[in-house]
Automatic annotation (TrEMBL):
This is Putative E3 ubiquitin-protein ligase ARI8. Belongs to the RBR family. Ariadne subfamily. PANTHER family: RBR FAMILY RING FINGER AND IBR DOMAIN-CONTAINING. InterPro entries: Ariadne, E3_UB_ligase_RBR, TRIAD_supradom, Znf_RanBP2, Znf_RanBP2_sf. The lineage of its organism: Eukaryota, Viridiplantae, Streptophyta, Embryophyta, Tracheophyta. Residues 1-108 form the RING-type domain. Signal peptide: none annotated.
Length: 354
């Protein structure tokens, strides 16, 4: 994972990969995309679901799904075999000696003897595998859906809302480009974030340091994107619904432009780390943490203007940083960007450090 990007954009604005012709998928490589798409459509996931959520009828071997609370199961016609869900034995053999009709203890005793260990182990593995896949797929699909919605909102903004906002706020449309830039950033970030979930699915679970660092970067990027998306979607609506120019519109401009810049930086850090295979992460410790030097190296970098840049690492509960020495940075109160100690103004939104 982490080869060069082949993403290109057609004049119609559709983005695709020049190498594999699938939709644009930076920072994930073509091989990972191919595996992920195949998995999403493969029958193997159906079989995993069947294995995790059903048991074979002891008589006809057809998979049976338990859809009621009691343990008395009757197979579908023409079989109609009645059996116990716990031990798979004939229901006719159940009574007080097995712990009662609805409290079979034969399963527990047989399990202690090892009779059901292998089948239960396979079922548990299938269930865990399915739950893990579902976790990543749902988030992959949710970001795809959010991206499609953002594309529609961007088109609506360009076709109608921008002109209306210009009239309401008495500002030329050329002064409102920061809103379009915010929505373009949202669309691109949703695309990137979507594919990071495919990346995470195939990231080996035993590589604890890499996984921790990946989830940290992904979480920071996702948190920043949500703040930007909410500002561009909900806070913008306040000014669209206004009947006259708003006194605090310029404050909104500063906030949205700052969030756009910060979010771009978050995602640049995330993309850069994934395209290099998270190679900056140091060796795992016994707790699976990544080294401070690796974290600070990856979060640092050069911006297009040549200034040193550090990704924000403030937690949701406060301004503390994770994986970076607190004494070497300060966090902007306005946009939460983590700046080097030497900076006198926020490198993302230009707010002066106090």
């Amino acid at each position: 994972m982490g080869s060069g990007s082949y993403d290109v954009n057609c004049n119609c604005s559709y983005g695709f990969c020049w190498n594999c012709t699938e939709e644009a998928h930076r920072p994930v490589d073509c091989a990972t995309v191919s595996k992920w798409i195949l998995k999403n459509s493969a029958e193997s996931e159906n079989m995993n679901w069947i294995l995790a959520n059903s048991k074979p009828c002891p008589k006809c071997k057809r998979p049976i799904e338990k859809n009621q609370g009691c343990m008395h199961i009757t197979c579908t016609p023409p079989c109609k075999f009645e059996f116990c869900w716990l031990c798979l034995g004939p229901w006719s053999e159940h009574g007080e000696r097995t712990g009662g009709f609805y409290a079979c203890n034969r399963y527990e005793s047989a399990r202690q003897e090892g009779a059901y260990d292998e089948s239960e182990r396979r079922r548990e593995m299938a269930k865990n595998s399915l739950e893990r896949y579902t976790h990543y797929y749902e988030r992959w699909a949710a970001n795809q859906s959010s991206r499609q919605k953002a594309l529609g909102d961007l088109q609506s903004l360009q076709n109608d809302k921008l002109e209306r906002l210009s009239d309401i706020q008495s500002q030329p449309e050329s002064q409102l480009k920061f809103i379009v830039e915010a929505w373009l950033q949202i669309v691109e970030c949703r695309r990137v974030l979507k594919w990071t979930y495919a990346y995470g699915f195939y990231l080996p679970e035993h590589e604890h340091a890499k996984r921790q660092f990946f989830e940290y970067l992904q979480g920071e990027a996702e948190s920043g994107l949500e703040r930007l998306h909410q500002c561009a979607e909900k806070e913008l609506q306040i000014y669209l619904d206004a009947e006259s120019p708003s006194k605090d519109f310029n404050d909104f401009r500063t906030k949205l432009a700052g969030l756009t810049s910060v979010t771009r930086n978050y995602f640049e850090n995330l993309v850069r780390a994934l395209e290099t295979g998270l190679n900056d992460v140091g060796p795992s410790t016994s707790h699976g943490t990544c080294s401070k030097s690796a974290t600070s190296k990856s979060l640092g970098g050069k911006s297009k203007s040549g200034k040193n840049r550090a990704s924000s690492s403030s937690s949701k509960s406060g301004g503390s940083t994770r994986g970076v020495d607190d004494s070497n940075i300060w966090t902007c109160d306005q946009c939460t960007y983590a700046n080097p100690k030497s900076a006198r103004a926020c490198q993302a939104c230009d707010r002066q450090h106090r």
